[in-house]
């Protein structure tokens, strides 16, 4: 380790006089100096001097790093740790001298604290006579240009070998090799590191097995197109980094092919009874393809086949009951880490008390997971909301049993500080309205950040009838109050009906083991309520049918996800369009204008047909579109790059729009059907579902989403006819319909 000389810092002093701050006649101000090395592991010492004399045992010390007081560092010495790396340290003292004057003094700062990050060394290469080994050194403090190497065979230094590489001679046969590197890192610490011993060196001509990576893949059980991928082969033996080719080899659930370079394809037999019987994403089987490299090294590529949900006419949700007399029904989610700020969103409903139900709760807890650590404990009676800790009822917002309501809860600790004594500010919105003024919890210990989201129903001592239910849907957790960074979401659509969300019962459940009596069920199945979507028609000969959404602001980049389908031309329909526009909302400002015929796709601006993607009338397809202006610059002359995927596959290379004025960013999403000059029959339709708009191409920051489940069947989405609609007034002949 680097040796630093002991330093003594000059001091700053401040005298605080005992007489209201006036000059104390004859007082001689005290001072404090530091000694020691500003290196992690070393101890700094404070030395106080005052010509007026003082009681050394009555001096108060406070150590600071970068000017911030260090908790519990209040003695005359301070041992540095790696936590102070890069910080400057000083100390402040206060005391009353023997003349009765209250004194205060602060030392100068140290240089930035150094902390050694020990280097490491690894050796690569074949352990065979005639092969070359290479030593690689890493060091978090930085490596100098000059590193001194030495090599040893079974602990005996090999004379004359001081390079970074070592060619193995016959004398090395049967030994293990180590490399040692000596140097002074870029922060002045002297290092000497030695590698782990290699395997014993084999005689000349001995084969070294290849290393094969990329040996896992996943496919859904309904995929009929070939699954493709590649494996990587590395081999220190020259000319052996290849794979033995296979063509249409039959394995358990399909056929497999691979080239010498490692590119492979797998054709799944979707009609195999085991494959077809996978009901949802929680059910899977594995298929295995045995590979062999040129030198005979064998490896296995494992392909996991997962089920997809069968088409369902009903929305699914988590249904919580209370069927045991020693616990409440509960759906509990444990966050990956404690959050000092965040947001949860959920849709929920409960049965009323005529069905024997008691209160339901939506709660956020710290790591204590108890009342003392409650951040919010929202009580949901069958007619009224209230909170515990603090205890208050909500005025102006009612519980509506049997009808899904939306809730948004946010929390934020001051400056992200979750230490003892710090209280978060909590907000609650129900159905889009602030339900209560922002508040702070008054439990005895609400520190440390939120670790748990709990949906509870019933009590620890009662059993409720099965008709008593608390239903949760569209659940999402974010790590910020604005809902930009998603931590977890679940709409419960990926599970099979009846799936038990208790991870002690179902090991694929993402929920905590404290979950109890929480199953996935079809929501609204008994009443006939099904999946809902927006249906667009064109019965007006002066306008197209359209669902239009205006973004809150122009976006230089973003992403649109959508499910859609249309009727075929036998129903009298013309083309449908999925379009992105700038503020001009016209062809000149078209960012993307996707034409959806009844058999094929095309683009306008540029005008072209899209090969390799087919429209399937009457069957929902998925669309994903991204756009990004260069460096976020949307000024005149700047063209965005557009990508387009249909049913999960890129259907064309990224392109730029060719309209005369595609500047300014995307402001409008337009979903149109028909034409301005003709009227179609009412059975010609364009269906839209699961609309999501993001503020980034990665699809992490949601701007707007709509699955059309929160509307009444037949509700008009034109705000000229429905003041509650969130869509633009240019919307025409777009209503919510229920899937039959």
General description of the model:
1% of the residues lie in helices and 43% in strands. It has 740 residues and is mainly beta. The strands form 11 sheets. Strands 26, 28, 33, 34, 35, 37, 38 and 39 form an 8-stranded antiparallel β-sheet that branches. Strands 40, 42, 47, 48, 49, 51, 52 and 53 form an 8-stranded antiparallel β-sheet that branches. Strands 27-36-29-30-31-32 form a 6-stranded antiparallel β-sheet, with no helix packed on it. A hairpin with a 7-residue loop joins strand 37 (470-478) and strand 38. The longest helix has 4 residues, at 273-276. The chain is globular, with a radius of gyration of 35 Å.
What is the compact description of this entry?
The chain is mainly β. The chain is built from one helix and 53 strands.
Question: Helix tally?
Answer: 1
Task: Name the beta content range.
Answer: 35-45%
Q: Supply Rg.
A: 35 Å
Low-confidence stretches: 1-23, 309-314, 525-529
- The total of beta strands comes to 53
Distance from first to last alpha carbon? 75 Å
Helix percentage range: under 10%
Averaged pLDDT = 86
Oligomer: single chain
Shape: globular
Q: Structural class from helices and strands? A: mainly beta
Query: How would a crystallographer describe the biggest sheet?
Result: 8 strands, antiparallel
């Amino acid at each position: 380790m680097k040796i630093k000389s002991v330093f003594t810092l000059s001091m700053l002093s401040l005298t605080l006089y005992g007489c209201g701050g006036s000059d104390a006649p004859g007082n001689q101000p005290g001072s404090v100096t530091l000694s020691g090395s500003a290196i992690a592991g070393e101890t700094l010492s404070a030395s106080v001097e005052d010509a007026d004399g003082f009681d050394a045992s009555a001096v108060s010390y406070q150590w600071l790093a970068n000017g911030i007081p260090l908790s519990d560092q209040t003695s005359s010495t301070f041992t540095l740790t790696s936590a102070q790396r890069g910080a400057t340290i000083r100390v402040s003292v206060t005391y009353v001298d023997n003349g009765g004057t209250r004194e205060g003094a602060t030392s100068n700062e140290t240089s930035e604290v150094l902390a050694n990050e020990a280097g490491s060394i690894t050796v690569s290469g074949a352990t065979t006579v005639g092969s070359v080994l290479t030593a690689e050194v890493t060091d978090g403090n930085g490596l100098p240009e000059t590193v001194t190497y030495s090599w040893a065979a079974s602990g005996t230094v090999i004379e004359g070998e001081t390079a970074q590489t070592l060619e193995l001679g016959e004398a090395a046969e049967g030994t293990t090799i180590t490399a040692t590197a000596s140097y002074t890192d870029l922060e002045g610490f002297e290092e000497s590191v030695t590698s782990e011993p290699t395997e014993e060196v084999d005689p000349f001509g001995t084969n070294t097995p290849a290393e094969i990576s990329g040996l896992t893949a996943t496919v859904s059980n309904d995929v009929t197109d070939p699954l493709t991928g590649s494996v990587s082969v590395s081999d220190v033996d020259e000319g052996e980094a290849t794979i033995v080719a296979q063509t249409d080899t039959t394995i358990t659930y399909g056929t497999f092919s691979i080239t010498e370079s490692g590119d492979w394809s797998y054709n799944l037999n979707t009609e195999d009874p085991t494959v077809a019987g996978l009901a949802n994403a929680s059910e899977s089987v594995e298929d295995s393809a045995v590979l062999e490299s040129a030198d005979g090294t064998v490896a296995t590529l494992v392909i996991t086949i997962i089920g997809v949900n069968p088409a369902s006419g009903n929305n699914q949700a988590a249904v919580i009951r209370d069927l045991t007399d020693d616990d409440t029904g509960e759906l509990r989610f444990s966050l990956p880490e404690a959050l000092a700020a965040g947001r949860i969103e959920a849709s929920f409903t409960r049965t009323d008390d005529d069905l024997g139900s008691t209160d339901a709760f939506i709660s956020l807890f710290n790591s204590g997971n108890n009342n003392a650590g409650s951040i919010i404990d929202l009580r949901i009676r069958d007619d009224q909301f209230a909170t515990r800790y603090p205890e208050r009822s909500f005025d102006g917002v009612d519980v509506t049993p049997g009808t899904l309501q939306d809730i948004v809860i946010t929390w934020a600790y001051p400056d992200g500080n979750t230490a003892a004594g710090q209280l978060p500010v909590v907000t609650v919105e129900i159905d889009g309205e602030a339900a209560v003024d922002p508040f702070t919890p008054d439990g005895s210990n609400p520190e440390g950040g939120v670790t748990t989201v709990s949906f509870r129903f019933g009590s620890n001592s009662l059993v409720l009838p099965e008709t008593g239910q608390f239903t949760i849907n569209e659940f999402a957790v974010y790590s910020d109050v604005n809902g930009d960074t998603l931590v977890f979401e679940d709409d419960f659509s990926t599970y099979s009906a009846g799936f038990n969300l208790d991870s002690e019962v179902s090991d694929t459940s993402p929920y905590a083991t404290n979950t109890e009596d929480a199953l996935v069920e079809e929501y609204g199945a008994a009443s006939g309520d099904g999946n809902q979507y927006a249906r667009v028609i064109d019965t007006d000969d002066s306008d197209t049918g359209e669902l239009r959404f205006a973004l809150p602001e122009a976006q230089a980049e973003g992403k649109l996800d959508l499910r859609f389908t249309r009727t075929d031309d036998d129903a009298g329909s013309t083309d449908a369009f999925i379009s992105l526009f700038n503020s001009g909302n016209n062809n000149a400002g078209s960012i993307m204008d996707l034409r959806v015929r009844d058999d094929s796709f095309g683009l306008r601006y540029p005008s072209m047909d899209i090969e390799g993607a087919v429209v399937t009338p009457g069957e929902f397809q998925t669309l994903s579109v991204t756009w990004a202006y260069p460096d976020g610059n949307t000024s005149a002359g700047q063209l965005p790059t557009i990508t387009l995927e249909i049913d999960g596959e890129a259907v064309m290379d990224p392109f730029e729009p060719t309209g005369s004025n595609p500047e300014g960013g995307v402001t409008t999403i337009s979903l149109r059907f028909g034409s301005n000059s003709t009227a179609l029959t009412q059975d010609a339709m364009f269906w839209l579902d699961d609309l999501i708009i993001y503020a980034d191409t990665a699809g992490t920051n949601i701007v707007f989403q709509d699955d059309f489940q929160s509307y009444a069947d037949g509700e008009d989405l034109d705000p000229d006819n429905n003041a509650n609609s969130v869509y633009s007034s240019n919307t025409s002949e777009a209503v919510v319909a229920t899937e039959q």
